[in-house]
Queue: 4 jobs
Job 1
Amino acid sequence: MIAKRFTHTCVAVAAAAACAMAGAAAPLAKTQGPGYYRTMLGDFEVTALNDGTVELPVEKILHQPAPKTQKALEKSFLKTPLETSVNGYLVNTGSKLILIDTGAAGLFGPTLGKLAANLKAAGYAPEQVDEIYITHLHPDHVGGLAQEGKAVFPNAVVRADKHDTDFWLSKVNMEKAPADAKGFFQGAMASLSPYSEAGKLQPFDGDTQLAPGVKAVSSYGHTPGHTSYVIESKDQKLVLIGDLMHVQSVQFDDPSVTIAFDSDSKAALAQRKAAFADAAKQGYMIGAAHLQFPGLGHLRAQGKGYAFVPVNYTVPK
């Protein structure tokens, strides 16, 4: 009888211990995934690639009163500093693999630099990329081109508007720039140097058909050679607008709000208004580097501004 009670007691103690262990606090994972989103555009496969996020003090860099910015953020259940996505886009046309923007690598802080890893997670290797189209030469768009002085995409030709390459790759312009802007020039030079030295940097001038179904369209203003890319297949259209906008919760409602990063705010504003109006009228999909990942969706006119409708989650067939 004593032995039986002892056995029951041991079982009860063991069960309690197991329950205690099962209920022990687990550490927070603090990771996110996946870092890519894939969709079809006609016969083309488009893969959005996440380079990470960066916190931006948008109440300081947007050209409107800080309280107004904060109110707009609160309306979208956001706050400042705003955790902002950095996106690139991989387009597989069937005959070419084209990467549009490469993320920041180490040029824009430690929370970025994930684009190459996410490209691999999406089933591609950097060596497979045939061409790279750059919207503009700011560090969060070109930093991923190189690592330790070597090309990350060794077989790729790099294309960008010559107005941007002429400006950002000029040592004369860098020397004349304010101290806090010199890093933009240095980052562009370091990122593009391996391709330039190999004869694989091929600037274009203005609106240019770069590949079947892929066209560069000038949208100068944010930088001297800022470029949007129009992708079309089987009557379906996607326009990647780069940095024509930065803060979704502010600039769709009020496209007139400009940002300190613009080289020419007036020109950037005109380009943004034209891009938004055309996208809403024509109904095609847009993508942008700093829309919340995956940064793809449609615009619908709403009052004096626009409503952004993110893409529906789908599994490509």
Job 2
Amino acid sequence: MIVPHRGLAASKTRLAPVLSPAERGQLAAGLLERVLRVAREAIPDVVVISPSAALAPLVEATGARLTVQRGLGLNEGLEQARAAAVAEEVTALLVLHGDLPLLSPDDVAALAAAVPATRGVAIAPDRAGTGTNGLGLRPASILRFAFGTGSRAAHEAAAAEEGLPAVIVERPGLAFDLDTPDDLERWLARRVPA
């Protein structure tokens, strides 16, 4: 499994209206640590790809591995990590974002189980249904990464172009990512007992 991350200093910039830089870094660290620990319960081999070497202590404390990204950009980093996975003869690949506060091991297992047995794609959309919070590929080398605005449609279109089955995995733990002040408010409301 690959978990891309921008690094703590560059994370959660859309929360700048409500959180200080230190608070955003602390939140990003907590989210990433939790996602890595949860992911490793379901998939033992987890690699974080990031331009930030400073993530090493956090990543290694969870039992995951850090690969420092050479270039810039989310999709470029994922291609670098995928190339390493293919070189290690990984047959199926999962990509999961590091800001999923409701993620459970069952969510990770469901995404992995949804990847078609011989050849295909599993897509876990975000809550809005337009982004991609999780992606599963078999074999690992298929499908170009298209993370960014409208990534769900882009991944579905890329799968269709290659004649690949695409399974949609809709689970609250995979769908809820924490990006905006509204997301933060929803998450905090869930954490406060009624």
Job 3
Amino acid sequence: MRPPHSKRLKRAESEADHGPRAAAAGARRWLLVATVLASGMAFVDGTLVNVSLPAMQKALHATLAQMQWVVEAYALLLSALLLTGGALGDRYGRRRVFGIGVAVFTAASLGCALSGDAPMLIAARALQGVGAALLVPGSLALISAAFPPQERGRAIGTWSGWSGITTALGPVLGGWLVDRYAWNWAFLVNVPAGVAVLLIAWRQLPESRDEGVEAADIAGAVLATLALGGIVFALIESPARGWSSPVVRVGLALGLAAGVAFVRVERRARAPMLPFAQFRNRAFSAANALTLLLYAALGGGLFYLPLDLIRVRGYTATAAGSMLVPITILMLLFSGRAGRLADRVGARLPLTVGPAIAALGFALFAWLPSQGSFWTTLLPAVLVLGVGMTLTVAPLTTTVMNAVASEHAGIASGINNAVSRTAGLLGIAAFGLVVTAAGSFHAGFRQVMLASALLAVLGGVIAGSMLRPSRGTADRPGNR
């Protein structure tokens, strides 16, 4: 219990509640620049590396399994530690933890570029995941604490749009750097960007925190890592090894046991990394349920789409990596407007219609004709999916952040980011079973896209049924 008359705690609570008014307009602009740039580094690394894998494998004389771990080590640590990153920011200062995350990520990027063998690269990638887990939730938490409620949707929309741009351009940038220079440049590009963010954070960003948050939940973080690692390992390895393989069974058993232990530990912990009480808020629960289903569809579907374009339709790797650029343009132009729409009419409408439009895009991918130009076959599906995601992303993020008090912004953004990352991991792994069972890659690809459409529709239905038809500011703590 906190002393009710503590001047220091009252001042901290006042800063948490009224920090948006205290942050000057100039500081808010610099904050957006820093958070967009930092988050962009983390998001780009999730996609840029994929097109660099062949060059890495050849240069490092690595096995295919080692290249898979180059991708999974980053994604796994990022997914498992996002909640801890948000809690650390709330407790010790969001700007401070954000800066530490940027520094770790930048140093790890340099380590990746200088790696002389696959194990060193895998270790550096894991460290990158740790840094990203600190900086990503800090980005949204800093925005939520610095912008007043009436401007928050637009600010988050701007962040979402530019973050989406960097994510989509990652494969294009990676292919260009590898083709023109070497695979190392896919990581070296992060170093000057990281240094720039650190300078901005040091000179311009305001600090905010929640003095009532206790120490980080290390036990929860370890159990979350084991749970995700075991389950993802079993899903990925089972097509090749079979479910009867002792290694697969041990991995699955370890993951499930760690998951059960995680839930029990979190329910009893004084300062859990996953506070289940937050899910009593209908808006928060609805937004995260939609995030889980939609990002499982997106992560799984868009993982297999470039493979189908290359294997079946004869696209080059660079062309396949470039095909999501139209989505990037849509998010750049309209994410801010989608955020303002949520501020004006509430989140229920965009979070019901947006996923339905995205589902139509996935369905169009499933029925792409084998012949035809990009403009008449692929582009319509890309545009429909882009419209759906643009209408959904900013209102979804705004709903998550508005559903909790501002002093809990870090853990809220951490939960939502962890859900989206976990959804992508599980979607890619689980859809691999669908592709294997289909008998041919192209048939499996079509089933994956139809499954993605089903998940998107289901997410929209859940959001539409759980969110109340109220204005954007109504879905705030206490308005349940």
Job 4
Amino acid sequence: MVELHEGLDPDVLILVDESDRGVGYLSKAQCHHGQGILHRAFSLLIFNGSGELLIQRRAASKRLWPLYWSNSCCSHPRGAESVDSAAQRRLQEELGIGCELKFLYKFQYQAQFDATGAENELCSVFIGRSDEDIKVNRDEIADWRWISPEALQAQMRAEAGRTFTPWFMLEWARIWQDHRPAVRSLVI
């Protein structure tokens, strides 16, 4: 892997191959330009003690999928940061909470937003439970709400995904199909 040197922009992302081996670093903007360049990412789905999922509506200032509803929190590790450390950091930065996270699976996807920008990620998916008060970062999140899995499933079906980010649609379909017992284990 290319070394990350002192003084380099701390928001550079980790480029990976299809086996999630680090192959270098590139700025966030460059990773998302055109059809995107494969980089490491993570998605967090946080449930409360009643089994509801926290979803967020992305800020209008987001370059990709502004004002779309998405999973609780998602981002990228920076430089040499581990996925686990980055996930805890972003929970605090975006939602003002911390919680134990359980890894579910990893998947690769590419989603084109417009002619000039896309996601191309190898994404680790985690679930967690928190009943802490949410303190959203308005630079990141326009709105948020708790929703039951059944209501989310119905809404996604009814809207055919028009208001949800593509990665969240992919993640939720797999969680709904393969990981419901893990989600149920989070409920009191």
